[in-house]
Amino acid sequence: MSNIEPKSLIDLDECVINALDLFAEPSTAFPKPDLSRFKRPLVVGSGNAIATGKIIFDSKDAVYADEGTFKDKLDAVDSIDGVVLLSASGGKHAPIIAREVKPKGLPVLLFTANPAPLAKDDVDELHVFPSLPEPYTYNTSTYMGMIMGTLVADPAAEAQKIRRHITDVVDPTLAGFDKKLGGFDAFYLLVPEEFELIRIMFTTKFVELFGRRLARDVFTWEQTKHATTVVNAPNELFMAFGRENTSFGTDRLNVPLPKNASYPAIMAVGYYVIGKIQTQKPAWFKEGVGPFAQKASEIFGQTIKPIVEFK
Predict the structure, then answer these.
(1) Positive/negative CA dihedral, 303, 306, 14, 199
(2) What is the pLDDT at residue 4?
(3) Which of 60, 203, 247, 286 has the most Cβ atoms closer than 10 angstroms to its Cβ?
(4) How far apart are CA 139 and CA 66, in angstroms?
């Protein structure tokens, strides 16, 4: 498992395109769970799973928790009327959480990409979203699929729109940038206020792909106006999504978003650009994911592979 050939792994930008091509197929089926019945659900997930949950339930009076806090939230909030677990694999902590929650008598829903998750007998509703094989931790088709399926009326049309935007607008923008993305050691990402919840997903992706090799921050425009730029890195690129940056940083890259952009759109465009950085940097992630998967398998007591595929 630790001897996987790094060259066999795709970069994140290619993963984004593959996911969009999958979603753009009219035959790709998305579950449509009824979330309107819940007045105050408990939404549980780890890492970018809980970030996905916050995006999906942004318009609801939801309570959010991870594997370490869900018990306290259940005990502290009497008005919780349902539990939604988000887990790409349906494994790791998801079965444990489901079994802990079930005695409370609350309906338990699992959003996953795995048609045969370990928790299938412990939940009331299993919602399996479409996905593709991806390197471990990329979770691009998985979580983008959940957001597409719950927030977008026509996922195929939206995926086609985003795909065209990347080809027709984002690629020429990157090609016209007079410096190489890989030449920077620090990145500051500016995102529109309406997409504030994407910040954790971009930050997490930087950590997963680059660890502490690259410095990064992700803020909205309003947050950036405060003391986030008092100290500037000597080799830092400010990347602005959806708006022209004329105020912050010395080296600037403005990345347009599609008109009437959705959360799947900014996720796809942001991940695509981060993937382009990955292509120009050493293969830190690709060389480390095999040994990491082996270690994670020991920690979780489950087999975790460098390439994740659900059948």
Answers:
(1) positive
(2) 60
(3) 286
(4) 17
CB neighbourhood size of 244 (10 A): 9
The structure tokens listed for 132 are 């593709």
What does the pLDDT average to over 268-281? 98
Task: Please name every residue paired with 83 in a beta bridge, in sequence order, or none if there are none.
Answer: 42, 108
Question: What's the mean per-residue pLDDT of the chain?
Answer: 92
Q: Which residue has the higher pLDDT, 72 or 96?
A: 72
pLDDT digits (tens, 9 = 90+) for 212-243: 999 999 999 999 999 999 998 889 999 999 99
Radius of gyration for the alpha carbons in the chain, expressed in angstroms and rounded = 19
Alpha-carbon distance 20 to 144, whole Å?
Answer: 9
The residues of the chain that CATH labels 3.40.50.10490 are: 8-152, 155-284
Q: How many CA atoms lie within 13 A of 259 on its CB side?
A: 0
Give the 3-state secondary structure of residue 241.
strand
**What type of residue is 149?**
G
Fold classification of 155-284 (topology level): Rossmann fold (3.40.50)
Helix orientation angle between 155-165 and 263-279, rounded to the nearest 10 degrees? 40
pLDDT one-digit tens code per residue, 77-90 = 989 999 999 999 87
Structure tokens at 260: 């009437």
The pLDDT score that the predictor gives to residue 2 is 46
Q: Which helix (H) or strand (E) holds 86?
A: strand 83-86
Q: How many CB atoms lie within 10 A of CB 306?
A: 23
- Type and span of the H or E element at 126: strand 125-128
Q: Contact, 53 vs 83, CB < 8 A?
A: no
Beta bridge partners of 308: 134
The pLDDT of residue 121 is 72
